[in-house]
Amino acid sequence: MQVVDITDSINESDNIKTIKFKWPAESKPGQFIMVWIPGVDEIPMSLSYSDGITVDSVGEATQAIHALEKGSQIGIKGPYGNGFDLSGNDFLLIGGGTGIAALAMAAENLSQAGKKIRIAIGARTASDLLFVERMKALGEVHIATDDGSSGHHGFITQVAEKLITVKKPDMILACGPEPMMASAVKLAHKIPIQCSLERHMKCGFGICGSCQCGKFTVCKDGPVFSGEQLGQMEDFGKWKRDSSGKSVWF
Amino acid sequence: MQVVDITDSINESDNIKTIKFKWPAESKPGQFIMVWIPGVDEIPMSLSYSDGITVDSVGEATQAIHALEKGSQIGIKGPYGNGFDLSGNDFLLIGGGTGIAALAMAAENLSQAGKKIRIAIGARTASDLLFVERMKALGEVHIATDDGSSGHHGFITQVAEKLITVKKPDMILACGPEPMMASAVKLAHKIPIQCSLERHMKCGFGICGSCQCGKFTVCKDGPVFSGEQLGQMEDFGKWKRDSSGKSVWF
Amino acid sequence: MVETFNRFPQSPDVLMADIKIEIAGIRLENPTMLASGILGQTGQSLLRIIHEGGAGAVVTKSIGLEPRTGHGNPCAIELKNGLLNAMGLPNPGIDAFGSELKIALKSNAPVIASIFADTGEKFSTLASRMEEHGAHAVELNLSCPHAEKYGLDMGSDPLKVSDIVGQVKDSVKIPVFAKLSPMVPDIGHIALAVQEAGGDAVVAINTIKAMRIEPEIGMPVLKNNVGGISGPAIKPAGIRAVYEIAGKVDIPIIGVGGVTTGLDAIEYIMAGASAVQIGSGVHYRGIDVFQKVSQEISEFMDRKGYASLQDIIGIARD
Amino acid sequence: MVETFNRFPQSPDVLMADIKIEIAGIRLENPTMLASGILGQTGQSLLRIIHEGGAGAVVTKSIGLEPRTGHGNPCAIELKNGLLNAMGLPNPGIDAFGSELKIALKSNAPVIASIFADTGEKFSTLASRMEEHGAHAVELNLSCPHAEKYGLDMGSDPLKVSDIVGQVKDSVKIPVFAKLSPMVPDIGHIALAVQEAGGDAVVAINTIKAMRIEPEIGMPVLKNNVGGISGPAIKPAGIRAVYEIAGKVDIPIIGVGGVTTGLDAIEYIMAGASAVQIGSGVHYRGIDVFQKVSQEISEFMDRKGYASLQDIIGIARD
Ligand SMILES: Cc1cc2nc3c(=O)[nH]c(=O)nc-3n(C[C@H](O)[C@H](O)[C@H](O)COP(=O)(O)OP(=O)(O)OC[C@H]3O[C@@H](n4cnc5c(N)ncnc54)[C@H](O)[C@@H]3O)c2cc1C
Ligand SMILES: Cc1cc2nc3c(=O)[nH]c(=O)nc-3n(C[C@H](O)[C@H](O)[C@H](O)COP(=O)(O)OP(=O)(O)OC[C@H]3O[C@@H](n4cnc5c(N)ncnc54)[C@H](O)[C@@H]3O)c2cc1C
Ligand SMILES: Cc1cc2nc3c(=O)[nH]c(=O)nc-3n(C[C@H](O)[C@H](O)[C@H](O)COP(=O)(O)O)c2cc1C
Ligand SMILES: Cc1cc2nc3c(=O)[nH]c(=O)nc-3n(C[C@H](O)[C@H](O)[C@H](O)COP(=O)(O)O)c2cc1C
Ligand code: FES
Ligand code: FES
């Protein structure tokens, strides 16, 4: 656990903020951290920057993160998890909701390595779309919203399907709601795909078993899993476990 | 604590054996180790070689060491203590009894560094004289025995006194019975001297206080002390402490 | 004169040490087990620890009568010399756990069901349910240091311990293990109560009550404030506990606490343990820590010329 | 919404933190003391710890009525995360110790005399003798984990504790501290017994019962087999103990166990300690560990804007 100072808090949308902190640790795209908000909670957050997280305010802990100001202190455990395997040349990235946060650094790395990337970003509505400008600087961006307020009216997976038909990528990276990723895996068919999963996390470093998905721990074996691994998980896309370990259907 | 295999056991005299062991640790001349003879005791022993000790059999633990055979195992803590400061050019070494064991590696180092050394070795009787051949290869050796069976008939400090008169060394190293070292300090007068002390040792690494001499711990601040430090110790040459911490006169 | 230096037979003709062991009638291929509460919450994870990890047996997460979410986050952090946790006994409850156990039982390795409760009666109910579900043994958690009413609160009182063990013994036919805490002045005394009540094995130790305060923040890090420390920091306390218990009881002892290497396991076994459990070691060396430790035990025994585990169990007591 | 993140005043005008502290009327220049049993056997060594080491106070080695040689060697070894010892309370006895105390009292720092015995009457005799010799306070060792009849054997029973503390309080005017062991299920309960019997401060913790077996040899390393572990490995247990005691008593608490840095000390102080004792830290950082730790405490307080120790004592409890 390392205590860090908040250096910046940036509004991304009504409900989403990016928080930056003084944290010199090395990390890989797709890794996450456990964020301790003293007195409140400790929750998993993908690194959307090497020194930042992008947080959708959905409950007590995320609200508390939104309330952090420059100079506030939080505790960080990590970086944890495996991160994305970035071998391949022609990438399709599919990000739903805050899922694009987990993909952003991967996109930057790939772009820097001169690889071809197409990025499909989905959200409920236009104002919720995240990192559109940041991604446009890196590759071809395609958009979908549930309400049609921007880009394709409908699911981002429908956009992805078209993009695959236009030209087969040799690797797909996806992060977002699990049902979305389940359809991504289906439409990827034989194209290699990696999905970043979310499960209820307690320890974050692979000992408590709370984030178990199939035989894997999401925090240590994941959060990124290959299509093949996902195929071995009977629960993927179907159910997750609550904080007592009981199964809950999606 | 490191467990090592005994590689050799060499008779030095009726009552004295050198024990060698497989022990790759680095050490400085004048340092000592704590030797654990499993089931028996753990006792301090000067390193007479970088991988060996030379042991006078005086009681249960030293007898047990004499009984060790090739392949037996002992435990070693250390090397401990400060060791000798070998700066200077013209050395006089004064070793009484097994005291020469603590000086032997210093003599070798000095000789290798091309420094002038004279070595005064004392013992009760000729057959107890230790390392005479080993020392002759390194410098000028002078001998005294209490019974006159070899060399000067009398104390080794008398020999040392003459040697100093012949030519003043610029550093004296002494190890042996404490009263012998007390006279050595006196006759050194203004010549720098270092003496290696013996006190009852329990921990060996400076926490238990059992080896206290004046304000110093012999195991950690020593076992080698300068004439100046010895001058600050009201107990030097007068009394030591038993294993309860009570003072006992020499 | 003394002649205790070479206690080892050193016979070069013994080529491969036998590291199988039987505890209260339960046969293990090797003396390493998964400790309770580490990844043992689902059937799939238990299976993986056996198949990929190489554990000789697995102990499930401690299961209670009702589902329990446990303490809030942070509930587990890394310290310099160990792990600090206050999970607070989260578990899906005995009803939901039956299906997990069924999955775990697909392997050939023994599955030991850890249970917790606050009365002997509830312990008995849980044990019977676990027996019905097919568990090979039950382990009574009498030692959790950070869940009020449970664990240590009962496990430090020899009368309560013998009452609970006695009641459970009356309710099931499978072996009953009791897991003890080192946070008592005389653990041998508690172990004796287990034996006298008919317990089949003693498991020691659970975590030691501990805490971390973050100076920068001025607050305890764990949401529950107080937790328990596991891992290398507690090994010396675990070895001591097993050694003292071995001086008091004849039933088998299972050593737990800070085992990460084969030599750690050997130290427990020499103190009197017939097998070891590994929890934090999964973090330090990966889930195949069981295989690694077993391998290292074998290598040690081969080098020293030991034919079977029986030859070293309790040897440091002689 | 929650607003507990910044508990620190951060006032930049406080330039130098005040780290003086008074405990039961005894004034310390800084909150670090030498723990009992580390180099505290002679007057000269106690003086040196004050003058060269920079300790705010020193506690003597535990002294009994008669001279005692203690356990045989090996009696202290280094483990990976701490020191393991079974000294066995060696000491020259109260008669011989008077002259040592006289030497130690030449300094300006308080000298606290640690004593051990197996009855309240003997404790009282020792305390009176120490008072005559000039000790500023006595510390009752109710917690040595490896000397039969002494220490933990009494210190784990609240009735015995209150009996001993009560008797000593009746015999001396100087403050009486009681040093407790963490090897009990509820240390707060024992601390309460100290307070109720009139004790002036609680000292926690002593070493935790532990053991090392050398696999190569197949024997315990300590001559006494069982000893106590100190140093970094036990800090989390010590912090927890102080935190729990602070929830039960109003008398000052002195934290001991694994302090090697200023932040370790701060952690104890935030848990509720008014001062800390340092034992193994002498090994890890040299005899000037007291000076170093004091310096680091000051630096922390200055950086965080704290004016005095009072501002952080027990802050993690709020
Ligand atoms: C690997 C990983 C990466 C994540 N990355 C991001 C990110 O980049 N941006 C983002 O906004 N969110 C991310 N999340 C989700 C985020 O952790 C939850 O939104 C957050 O925990 C909600 O906490 P709360 O107290 O605000 O809400 P609560 O009211 O406590 O809970 C709301 C929902 O959040 C989820 N949740 C709560 N606690 C946890 C927990 N300990 N572990 C996992 N999920 C929990 C549950 O689904 C719960 O129903 C990530 C989750 C995981 C597992
Ligand atoms: C730094 C140092 C270096 C030494 N180097 C050598 C050496 O190179 N060769 C050698 O033969 N001897 C050396 N000694 C002395 C050696 O440690 C003792 O002779 C040995 O401990 C005797 O043990 P015992 O069981 O055989 O005898 P015992 O019958 O136990 O005791 C005989 C005498 O040995 C001394 N002694 C016993 N235990 C200890 C102890 N733990 N610490 C210190 N002294 C003890 C006491 O004076 C005692 O009266 C050294 C001692 C010290 C302190
Ligand atoms: C995260 C975690 C959860 C634990 N949960 C339980 C539990 O539910 N029941 C139990 O009896 N012990 C539990 N323990 C204790 C372990 O089973 C074991 O006794 C302890 O961790 C010491 O072993 P180790 O050093 O190998 O981890 C838990 C330990 C950890 C670290
Ligand atoms: C070598 C040694 C000797 C000790 N002797 C005593 C003693 O005589 N009386 C006592 O109360 N505590 C004794 N202790 C315990 C310490 O005072 C202290 O409580 C313990 O070591 C934890 O603190 P630390 O981690 O700073 O060492 C001793 C500890 C050590 C390491
Ligand atoms: S959160 Fe604990 S194992 Fe993943
Ligand atoms: S032998 Fe313990 S301090 Fe020197």
Task: List its salient traits.
heterotetramer; A: 250 residues; alpha/beta; Elongation Factor Tu (Ef-tu), domain 3; Rossmann fold; 2 domains; seven-stranded mixed β-sheet; 22% helix; C: alpha/beta; TIM Barrel; eight-stranded parallel β-barrel; four-stranded antiparallel β-sheet; disordered N terminus; binds flavin-adenine dinucleotide; binds flavin mononucleotide; binds FE2/S2 (inorganic) cluster
- Give the overall average pLDDT of chain A: 95
Hey, roughly how much beta strand do the residues of chain A contain? 25-35%
DSSP helix fraction of chain C: 25-40%
Query: From the alpha-carbon coordinates, what is the Rg of chain A to the nearest angstrom?
Result: 17 Å
According to CATH, the homologous superfamily of the largest domain in chain A is Nucleotide-binding domain of ferredoxin-NADP reductase (FNR) module
Largest sheet of chain C: 8 strands, parallel, barrel
CATH architecture of the largest domain in chain A: 3-Layer(aba) Sandwich
Rg of chain C (CA only): 19 Å
The overall strand count of chain C is: 16
CATH-assigned fold name of chain C: TIM Barrel
User: What is the CATH class of chain C?
Assistant: Alpha Beta
Most residues in contact, chain pair and counts: C-D, 50 and 50 residues
DSSP helix fraction of chain A: 10-25%
Termini Cα gap of chain A = 32 Å
CATH architecture of chain C: Alpha-Beta Barrel
Which band does the percent of strand residues of chain C land in? 15-25%
Describe this structure in words.
The complex is a heterotetramer, with 2 copies of chain A (250 residues) and 2 copies of chain C (318 residues). The relative contact order of chain A is 0.14. In chain A, the strands form 4 sheets. Chain A has a 7-stranded mixed sheet, with helices on both faces. Chain A starts with a strand and ends with a strand. In chain A, strand 3 (32-37) and strand 4 form a beta hairpin. The longest helix of chain A is centred in the middle third of the chain and has 14 residues, at 99-112. In chain A, 22% of the residues lie in helices and 34% in strands. Chain A folds into 2 domains: 2-80, Elongation Factor Tu (Ef-tu), domain 3 (Beta Barrel); 90-249, 3-Layer(aba) Sandwich (Rossmann fold). Chain A contains 6 helices and 17 strands. Chain C is an alpha/beta fold and 318 residues long. Chain C has one domain (21-70, 88-209, 230-317): Alpha-Beta Barrel (TIM Barrel). Chain C is 33% helix and 18% strand. Chain C contains 10 helices and 16 strands. In chain C, the strands form 4 sheets. Chain C has an 8-stranded parallel barrel, surrounded by 7 helices. The radius of gyration of chain C is 19 Å and the shape is globular. Chains in contact: A-C, A-D, B-C, B-D, C-D. Bound molecules: flavin-adenine dinucleotide (2 copies), flavin mononucleotide (2 copies) and FE2/S2 (inorganic) cluster (FES) (2 copies).
